[in-house]
Specification:
34% helix; elongated; alpha/beta
Length: 223
């Protein structure tokens, strides 16, 4: 009975380890895709985008005009040990109703906190080039009041679109050139390969431990 239980458990954890390794292989392919996209020339955004997937971690370019009255400041962004904001401004795409959110850079908190320092958005036509990303899907809300004026606890494109009443593209551009007085925000694509490798090694280690314990117990019986 002990042997059957050990065999079943060994098979289970070994299969979980193999499944995680297969997931790691899938993520390696995804990481390779992201890396290729980074090397491609910028894609011009001209209007509606049905899905963010083809744009993820592609360099993109958009032209239009800022909507400064809809600018927001995403709070609790840490840079070099200092807390601050990501300044996110909607850009109405030239000749279209759609807008795309642009992360124009990081801004440190000042004495006006919890309000955010003012950041101007230049008038007239502008062109923005940067990396297309998505905000984190998981986040923690520190209170029920997630929006205070222009200060937001977290950025959700869907929440922003509903709040602002705008037709918003499903990606955020991390601007190559930050606004004056801001620090550039960068992001490196990570498909999560390391996480699955770590999980697989944990399952394989548990399988090896199970086998070692079974051998040790049976050697004792023989002795």
């Amino acid at each position: 009975m002990t042997t059957l239980a050990a065999a079943a458990f060994f098979a289970l954890v070994a299969s979980l380890g193999t499944w995680q390794m297969n997931r790691a292989d899938e993520k390696r392919e995804r990481q390779a895709l992201f890396d290729r996209r980074l090397a491609e020339p910028p894609l011009v955004l001209t209007g509606s985008v049905p899905s963010p997937e083809p744009l993820m971690y592609r360099r993109v370019r958009a032209a239009g005009r800022w909507i400064p009255e809809r600018q927001i400041h995403v709070d609790n962004q840490i840079r070099d040990g200092r807390a601050g904001f990501h300044v996110v401004t909607p850009l109405r795409i030239e000749g279209r109703d759609e807008v795309v959110l642009v992360n124009r850079g990081w801004l440190a908190r000042d004495g006006s906190y919890p309000a955010a320092p003012p950041v101007a958005a230049e008038p007239g036509r502008v062109e923005v080039t940067g990396l297309a990303t998505r905000p984190p899907a998981r986040y923690r809300e520190l209170s029920a009041e997630t929006i205070t004026g222009s200060v937001w606890q977290n950025l959700s494109i869907e929440r922003y679109a509903a709040h602002a009443g705008l037709d918003v593209l499903p990606v955020v551009i991390l601007a190559d050139e930050p606004a004056k007085g801001l620090a550039r925000v960068t992001e490196k694509p990570d498909a999560g390969v390391a996480k699955h490798v770590e999980y697989s090694l944990t399952w394989y280690a548990l399988a090896a431990t199970t086998l070692a314990l079974w051998v040790a117990m049976n050697l004792k019986r023989v002795a």
